[in-house]
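Now for one protein, fold included:
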Amino acid sequence: MTKHRLNEDDATTILPKLSLPATVEELAAQEREPAARRSRRPVVIVAAVTAVLTTAATGWALTQPADQPVSPPAALPTAGSRGYVDGFGAVSESAQPPSRSLPRGPGAGPSARPSAAGSSSGAPTSPGQSLAPSALVAGSQRSLRAADRPDRFVRQSSGLASLVSVTLESPGGVRQAATFTVVAGLADKNCFSFVGVDGGYLRHRDWRIRHEQSNGSQLFREDATFCVRAGTVPGAVYLESYNYRGYYVHLRGDELWIDRWRDRDAVFDRECAFAVSAPWG
């Protein structure tokens, strides 16, 4: 008996051999078999086919390579230099600030926790009292004072922001107009936006600092976002425009504007410095 014949008769062969009737006599004999015996044949065939398919599927699965860890998608590059437009035309061709001596590092960042009106140490404070720059946190109410003018605070009135004298004897409306809720920047959560008692925002337009209701535009969000920078006046903050890099909130007398930083100008330096204060209203 040959090797080929042995393989055919091997009891381990997966498919059982099915004998088919060779003659009419054999076919007739099968027809005479009991119906119960004939009905079992399709079941045996189906079971054999199912076993073959299951064995094949298992073998295929074992030959597949193990799952490989999925790498996270690579971060997309962000845009580099771009121009900034304030409703009246392009101003800066680059997001990079001009060379200047003012440090670029932020002096304070937004906080997710609201801050009380008092100082960071928890000691009671009186309205208008100067606080540390770190007291400028999102969720707090604060007033802003000109660093070199002890009684002059930023106040919104008739759609504009300017400096006015505020004291304990000032009318309630004046004190409230000199108080702002600090929120995370509308265009950058690492910066700040300032909301007045009527829900309007400090924003720049035509270079002037104004107080206006949001119109929901991207331009408004950028105009109403200011980033805190450290400066040379102790205990003061400097507010840089988010979308006009190198331009700072600057005093022209009692009016507030955004102007390009001027190097080696001590007067300009003082006019850009603001003290964070306990709220008036």
